[in-house]
Amino acid sequence: MRKVCIAGNWKMNMTPSEGKAFAASLAESVGDVTGNVSVVVAPPFITIPSVVEQVKNSNIKVAAQNMSDKESGAFTGEVSADMLLDAGVSIVILGHSERRALYKEDDAFINRKVLLALEKGLDVILCVGETLEERENGQLETVLKRQVTEGLKDVSPNDMSRVIIAYEPVWAIGTGKTATGDDANSAHAFIRGVVAEMLNEGVANSVIIQYGGSVKPSNVKSLMAMEHIDGALVGGASLSVENFAPIVRYND
Hints:
The chain is of the alpha/beta class. The chain contains 11 helices and 8 strands. The protein has a single domain (4-26, 37-64, 78-248), classed as Aldolase class I (TIM Barrel, Alpha-Beta Barrel). Helix content is 41%, strand content 16%.
């Protein structure tokens, strides 16, 4: 049985003091979750240290929302993998649709980050997903195959045990719209098939594939009931313990 990963992406929300208080409350609510479910939060860079301190005695892992494709040097404003590791981060989100759309990150650039993160010892959540226009034009599978194939280029079968894929239909992020369970499951199954083609069936059957896109307490159970959905990458609902805790504890 594949593990389940519920991750909260805070985006550009929560100051260090706000994040500290939130993380303490979250640790009380879900920090004891064990078994098949892993819990991850991804604060802004500046908020990471205060969150790490608050969740250190819990089962909550801390992720970064991005990282540089360079190890160090004259890259003003960038944050390196080594910096993240030293701050207590164990996972990094790469290829989020907002990074692709707003900052023009392409697949090759994202792939360099993926390979560097894995080399440095960070686990990776690789985000993929289509826009509404791409879906309506029948390009769903073309887009997903390109993003998965190019994003995971040169990743070894062994390293895939440290990669989570997050399918996030861009049209469902922050809009209140959610792909139906069947639609999401179909996309996840397709992604799993692409991984099988790239590597092998064993890797494809074991890789965790999350769904991201307006996940909330009211729809998480129906999504998680789908065969190929192994968790959630949660945006807005992860900013409130009252909303995020029930998502984490969807199976209670």
